[in-house]
Each structure stands twice: as structure tokens, then as C-alpha cells.
Amino acid sequence: MASQEILREEPSRGSFINDPKVRGIFFQAVVIIVLVALVWWIVQNTIDNLTRLRIASGFGFLRGRAGFDISDSAIAYSSDSTYGRAIVVGFINTLIVAAAGIVTATFIGFILGIGRLSHNWLIRKICMVYVEVFRNIPPLLVIFFWYSGVLSVLPPPRESINLPFGSFLNQRGFYFLRPIWGEGSWLILVALLLGIAMAWFVARKAHQRQMATGQQFPVFWTSTALIIGLPLLAYALSGFPLSFDYPKQSTFNLTGGFQVKPEFLSLYLALSFYTAAFIAEIVRAGIMGVSKGQTEAAGALGLRPGSILRLVVIPQAMRIVIPPLTSQYLNLTKNSSLAIAIGYPDLTATTGTVLNQTGQAIECVLIMMVVYLALSLLTSAIMNVVNARMALVER
Amino acid sequence: MQEHDLSFVRVEMALAQSAPPSERGPGAWIRKNLIASAGDTILTIIGIVLVAMILPQLISWAFINAQWTGTDRTFCATVAQGGVQPDGWSGACWAFVNAKFGQFMFGRYPIDERWRPILVAILFVALLVPLLIPKVPRKGLNAILFFGALPIFAFILLVGGVFGLPHVETSLWGGLLVTLSLSFVGIAVSLPLGIVLALGRRSRMPIVKMLCVIFIETVRGIPLITVLFMASVMLPLFLPAGVSFDKFLRALIGVSLFAAAYMAEVVRGGLQAIPKGQYEGADSLGLGYWQKMGLIVLPQALKLVIPGIVNTFIGMFKDTSLVSIISMFDLLGVVKQNFSDANWATPQTARSGLVFAAFVFWLFCFGMSRYSMFTERRLDTSYKR
Q1: Superfamily for domain range A83-177+246-390
Q2: Which of B45, B210, B237, B352 to mutate to test the interface with A (most CBs of A within 10 A)?
Q3: Closest residue in B to A369 (Cα–Cα)
Q4: pTM, two decimal places
């Protein structure tokens, strides 16, 4: 003990300059001084420039009248609304297109990823060509392709293309029937929620019973019956309150129904198709990452191929898949900002318009940065919860 | 006690089994790969239907029905649209790409001066190809010429204003020239910057570490468009009045910083994968920090993350197309700008131009990814099972 303490107290024999601790402190001090000087310089310049341009800093401008129209709005908005509301409209549009894109891209991506590992040569090659094509072209180009290459050369409204279920496709977008919820339709929603809750309860009970006795219960069919059957029952009981508003062709335009604008459609399709190629590669890597011994062992236990995939391979593959999948979801959300190129009013586009009108560059860019950062953090937080549930629970 | 003899001798011959299906030849291949089971057969039929729906249309659009030559829109428009093609015609308008090819490559670069970008391109290829082929000797000299001398020479030649070369504004640059020069500079800047950021993030100095983490996570959390917005509207505010940057340079800074943040994360992955013993071994040899990193750790770490680095390069190459949003004319920007040319406006113009641009982008990205796979195999020293 004593000798150790003596050793510790012994001063470093090297030169003072060569002590890594001293160097570290010195270096960091230099970094701070340079940084502070730089920030001070930038702030001074900015203040000078702002006074010269007579722009008042602060977020007061958000209460001003916007004065511009937004073509796609989920909430009530007119040109008399405030700048703040315009930005909120854009934010909601970003959320809508990102959420829709994530769902579709995941769906297409999983099909393609599994398809790339198919035993079937033709399916494998088709999926490979898709992935190699879409992975290697810029997303912006895909958006333009859908917008100016496909959707804008569709026939005018008068010669709309008829599609099933009374929907139409033309230059101005995709029209489909809009459900009109009549009196008492809240009962259907309640029944749907009740069905989901009951299905969850049944699944839990069935799992407990299987764990205790080994007897299985057809959870899937019961759940399907509950989730679909209960709302149908409620629909019948409340006197069929649902009716549909079909789009109708008039001389120059289509009236009624629900219109999806070509801007949204091309952004949504492009983001889905582009991101799907990346998700396919992630899924493929995930499935290939599960060692062959697992499949063989499951086979030796007598599981059927479907059960092997569902019970053994996919749960293990998901552990590999989820972290990169999260970053693809984040990429899709960030890529939705390309909406500005085709004029879909997402967050970047509306905030950009506000920026141009007010000249409040710093505040507007700050709003964009904070919102996208918050979205990124939120998405990763959700996916981290999913990941924690999927992660390997070791004994 | 002797048991009864239970041995059994078979008297009749077992029936000969039919020969197993051949494992060779096209028949066996089809059996194995296309119609192995009922489900497989259904998938094959779906696949054939898909291919039959898409491929003939695509080929007839791109080749058979395509219009290869022509001087204006009438060559690519149907009679109803005021052109010469029969009604219902649908084919690529390669005549448009042909007529605008110079613009797609160089933008509005003066026609008399176009030998300058062409010369730079020739030098670029002449230096790049030997650098990429492992067998060609003198890699060091080659790399110095490529990363050191070529950019300086290209800058002088492309911008001009000295040695009797007329000055060419960067606002006149366009097309593939902008795409390639943005990505080349972006790649050359983002890799070293990314390495520095990654080292900073793993540094023991708390302030340096914190700064690097804040930079990396902020940039990774926001879209490139926002960064470009920042570069184009906020940078002028940050500088003293009167000082202004070239627009091209601003985009360059934005793209490079953006790629550097992603690069830093890729490099960090490599640094984390190097066992601690390597760091300690370097320390015990008495190497300093930069010697340790430069001679021992980074060569191993970078080799591990070549795929990630190339993926970031590919991502950046694709991202350069975003500068068209802040009204610069890269390849995609020029193609898009030409849609509004009244001389060529037909329903097929946009499609043809975009397919051409997609093909160019695809060629570069696909080439990069294939070369990275080749390098990965070449540098792979481990024994794979």
C-alpha cells in the first residue's frame, strides 16, 4: 500500500508540455476561444445585417396574416390565416405523407426482400432488378418522373380513366368515393375499438393457456371475426348510417368524391417506391443473418416451413432489421421535404414561402430544424420501444 | 436354450425404382428453379405475367417506337398534337436528348470554351482509371496527382481568368459538369472531415466530444434541403455586409458538411470495431495520438467500413440533385429546365429527359457500388467459411 501511494505521488518525469492532460486542457481552451470568437463575429454580423435590412427578429411574425393559399390542407386554412397556422398546415402535410409512405414502403420492401431470397429464379431476378434500379437513382428524379413523366400527361378531366369502385384518374389527380358518416356511426367506431380490445384479450388468454396446457386456440380467426364482425354488427344495428359520395363527371371537371392531388400522389408514390428498395435490402440481410442451424433445428423439431418462418426465422431477423429500418423511416421523413420541388405544401415548402414573404430567415430555418429534429427523435423513440420488445432476452 | 432362427432372407427381387429426375440440363433447372412446387409455379406465372406486361411496352417505348432524330417537337408529337407521328403513338423522344445533349453535359458553359471541361474530364478519367486498377504501379504519385494537382488544374481551367483564358462564371456552369464537380469536391472534403469528426466524437476531451456530437446529430436529423436553405439564405446574413460567396461555393459547403456528418458515423463504426488491444499496442510502442491513429487504427478501421463509405458517396452523388431546388442547374435541373422549352414540349419530352438523367445517375451509382464490392473482396484478408 505504502509503495503504491509513493508511486502515485511521484510527479510525471516528462516535460510539462508533453503531459496529455495539460495538452488536452490547452487544446480545448483554444477550441472554446476560437468558437466563441466565431460565434461572436457571426452574431455581430447578423445583428448588423438585420438592422440594415430592417428585419425585426423574434417570432412575432407568426401572428401576421399569411396572404397565400395552400392547395392541400387537412385543417381549416385560408389566405387570411396566420403564418403560424400555415406552418402547422405544412407540418400536418409532412406527417401525412411520411406516415403513408412509411406504411407503403414497409409493405413493398418486405415483399421485395423476401422475394429476393425466393427459391424461384424469376421472382428473385425481378426483385433484384427493382432494387438495383431504384437504389441507384436520386429520389428527386423519381418524384419528377411520377409528376411530370406520368401523372401530368394523363388525360384531362373530361376523358378521365375509369377505375373500379367508381374512382377516376386524370391530370388533376385520383378521385375516389368518400364515405359519409351518418347519424349513429360513432357506434361503429366504438365497436371497432371494442373488437380490437377483445381480440387482444383473447390472444393473451390463448397464449397463457398454451403456456400452461399446450393446447392451442385459433387466435387469428377469432380476432378477425371480432375485429370485422363487431363493427358490421354495429353498422346493422344502428340502421346502416354509412353512405358514399361518388365522384361524378360533369362537363369540365369531376365533382364530389375525394380528390388526391397529383402532387401528393407523386411524392407518396416516389418515396414509397424509392425507400422500398432500401428496406428490401435490409430485410434480405436480416433473414440471411439468421443462421441456417436455426432453420434446420426447427425443421428437426417437426415444424412446418410456414411455422419455421413465422416462429423461428422472422423473430430473430427482426432484431437485425429494426435498427436500420428505423434509419430508413427517418430518411423517408427527411426526404419528404423534397415536396418543395413539385409544390406539395409540406413543412419545408410552406416555411420556405413564409421565409420569402417575411424575410425572417433565421427564425424560419430554426423552426424547420427543430421540427425535423423532433420528428427524428420521436420516430427513433418509438422504434426503440419496438426494438426493446424484440431484443434478445437472455437468461 | 437355442432360440428359433429369426433371420429373414428375401427371396424375390425388389422392384427397380424409376430413375430419379435428372439433376442436369435445362429441364432440371426449370424444375428446380421455376416449378418446384404448386406455389412456386403460381409465383412463376405471376412473374411471367408481370414481365410480359412491362417488358414489351418498355422495349417498344425505348427502342422500337422511339424517335431518334429530329429538330423540333413535331418529330415527337402525334398528328392530333400537331406533329408527324400517328395517333396513339408512344415512344421515347431521344431526339430531344440528342438536341440538348451539350446542355445536359455543360449547362450554359460557353460553346467556344467547352474544350475546357472536356479536357478536365479526359484528365479525370486518365488519372482515375489507373488509380482504380490495383495492378497499376505508382499509386502514391497517382493519388497525389488525382487529389492534389487535378483539382487545382481543373479549377484554373474551368473558372479561367488567368493565362489568357476567358473567365467563366459558375452561374453558367450546369449539367453533368456541376453534378460531377459538386460530388468530387464533396467526396474529397467529406471523407477527411468525417474522419476528424469521428475521432472527435471518440475523443477523451469532453468539450471536443460534445461539439462533435452536437454537430453530427443535428445535421443527421435535418433534411439536406434545410441545410441548403441555410447555406443559401443564412450564410449571407452571417457574413459582414458586402462580402458574398459564390452560389456554387455555398451549395458545395452545404453538401460537404452534410455528407461529413454521415461519414463520421460510418467511420465511428469502424473505429469501434477495432479491438482495444490495437490501441494499447500502439500506446505501448510509444506512438503519439496521431501516429497511433494514422498508422495503426485508421488503416484497419477504414478498410472495415469501405462499403459504408461508398454508400455515403453514392448517397451524396444522388443528393447533389437537390441543388436544383435552390435554382442551380445540375444534370436534373437542366433536364427539368428544358421541359419548358416550347420548341420541344410534347407529352413524351419529360419522360425521355428524365429517363436519360436516371440512366446517367444510375450508371455512376451502380458503377461505384460494384467497384466497392470488388475492393471489399480484394482487401478481405480473413478466412471465410
Answers
A1: MetI-like (1.10.3720.10)
A2: B237
A3: B222
A4: 0.84
